[in-house]
Design a protein that fits this description.
The chain has 363 residues and is an alpha/beta fold. 42% of the residues lie in helices and 16% in strands. Strands 3-2-1-4-5-6-7 form a seven-stranded parallel β-sheet. β8, α9 and β9 form a beta-alpha-beta unit. The protein is globular. 44% of the residues are buried. GO terms for molecular function: glycosyltransferase activity. It comes from Candidatus Woesebacteria bacterium RIFCSPHIGHO2_01_FULL_40_22. InterPro entries: Glyco_trans_1, Glyco_trans_4-like_N. Keywords: Transferase.
Length: 363
Amino acid sequence: MKIAIDISQIVYGTGVSYYTKNLVSKLIELDNDNRYVIFGGSLRRFNELKKEASNICENYENRSLVKIYPFPPNLADFVWNNLHILPIENLIGRVDVFHSSDWSQPPSKAFKITTIHDLVPILYPKISDPKLVAVHKRRLSIVAKEIDRIIVPSVTTVNDLVQIGFNEKTIRLIPEAPNSIFKSLKPEVIEPVKRKYKILGKYMLTIGTAPRKNLSRIIAAYERIKPDMDIKLVVVGEKSSSFEAGRGVIFLGRVPTHDLPALFSGSTLLVYPSLYEGFGLPILEAYASRTPVVTSNIGSMKEVAGDASELVDPYSVDSITKGILNAISNKKELIKRGRDVSRKYSWDKTAHMTLEVYEESKF
């Protein structure tokens, strides 16, 4: 088969970028039977996108082809999601399978697959950018009409799609996995990263500052335990005026991927009681880093966490506070359980399961 995959979002440092890079790299590495067309478009980041694509295909040129074009995402959105013109074959030639990105759904005669990571703009429109909500609604309407298979990372997202009218027979559940860079690191690796971000002593880690990340309640829980515990709260993400953070709360802003393993491994625990996630990858990253986790007792977080996290009611500051204290007290047991859970997930498995979906094009 000839399989085309849109990697346009690989350069943005998001969860979708992470998924795309790991999946495509592993597919090309493992699959000796098919040929791949690595396709993408960007204007301002054209050279960066082209370099990323070339790096992925560098050692597998005999079974991969790179096609990167200098057009911006908003143009792709207009042409493909609004007008729904310009078949993908006009740009990359005939293919048997086309795996589209999270953003754009071009028309194609190929067996069409897309990955839906979550439904935040649809389920939570009041806390999402109105333009993003409109784009996702258009995209989902096209997906419902034309996409042959939809890949999702969790049972939660399967149920969400079915609830808004999608046919469950077209949905395939394929969990994601932590990157191999997440592991237990030695102090000599952790300390330089802590110094870089001016983190002194023990700290709890939390990821993200979007409204659904529940940071206000996390900070409130931290303020309750701070008087009795010499520990800081380190936040990966930008500070905004909506957060009233006192002493001990450190906002790191955007953190490059290569610094995250040290931040995970060096933390006392990950506090991640999100209100909604399509999967909850930071939970597995913490497990792989031998770091205990406090997360939500709902949705995909509960699903991914298994019995290895301290599960809390994300809407209750009391519950989050208690969960933090319990996780610290039961640290050794949670680390052991987390290690066992993390071993169930790998990008090898994710790639093999995705390839099985591609193979459905033959039937």
